[in-house]
């Protein structure tokens, strides 16, 4: 029978045998797959693996700091932190079209990835948290016709980038390729990754940038980050985080009139998006208790400057998508 301990030992052996003393690059995203991967690679080959974390500035409140803390302090795994916040934000200036926004973020990610890996490298291998369903999906596209070996043609968390440039076509090491998501979670838990990573709701590669409708500015990022934090804080406190597939806030660029104290306000609405789902392919809007909606609405309007209205999205997928962009 399959056990997490046997899997960990076997993968460490396999990584050692495959990689030898070659150098490996790993891009941490903060999710369960890349975090588990970092642990396995580091246990197998120590400082031959370089874990790189690109902070594009679109993560949630406290998330980059927390990730660094977990790897640095708890696991003693050094992480090369790349602060690319300015670069990404500059790219967002004047951009309102969702597809262009996604494409620009994807391309910028590749640029930063490329220049940073040049600085830190050279590397022979790229470690990717490919899971079994991804292997099936990309069966032919990722195989080098000459060697038959799997190579990186895309970077996993940014599916919508055209493809990697020729010089970034690393050979791949993919220790999770035989696992399903629930098995990765078991492994992650057994090696001591905290629950906040193990059972984190799915979070898109472009992050909060695609939850700000219209132009992404630092002011809007701050507003959304605070609203999103209240959502996570409240559902964690009430012990209902895992009742939902995803639960998040979306910031709208329009403004509406409100009144606070004896003053008229003119500020942004925040949309609450809570959904239940099996796999993210289809989803239902969640029948969230009124009490929770009330608490969230009060807290967001009172605690987040720049927001004076909270609305609830009652659209399932299809016809809606989970994200707004
Ligand atoms: P949609 O909005 O298409 O989302 O119904 C389905 C699921 O995919 C997530 N999502 C992404 N994940 N990169 C990712 O890694 C992305 O660009 C991306 N866009 C959407 C979304 O959060 C939901 O779980």
UniProtKB/TrEMBL annotation:
Residues bound to ATP: 29-35
Primary enzyme class: ligase
Domain GMPS ATP-PPase as annotated: residue spans: 2-200
Pathway in which this enzyme or protein is active: Purine metabolism; GMP biosynthesis; GMP from XMP (L-Gln route): step 1/1
Keyword line: ATP-binding, Glutamine amidotransferase, GMP biosynthesis, Ligase, Nucleotide-binding, Purine biosynthesis
Entry's Gene Ontology molecular function annotations: ATP binding; GMP synthase activity
Catalyzed reaction equations: XMP + L-glutamine + ATP + H2O = GMP + L-glutamate + AMP + diphosphate + 2 H(+)
EC number: 6.3.5.2
Gene Ontology cellular component annotations, sorted alphabetically: cytosol
Coiled-coil region: none
Role played: Catalyzes the synthesis of GMP from XMP.
Quaternary state and interactors: Homodimer.
Name the UniProt record assigns to this protein: GMP synthase [glutamine-hydrolyzing]
Annotated organism of origin: Hyella patelloides LEGE 07179
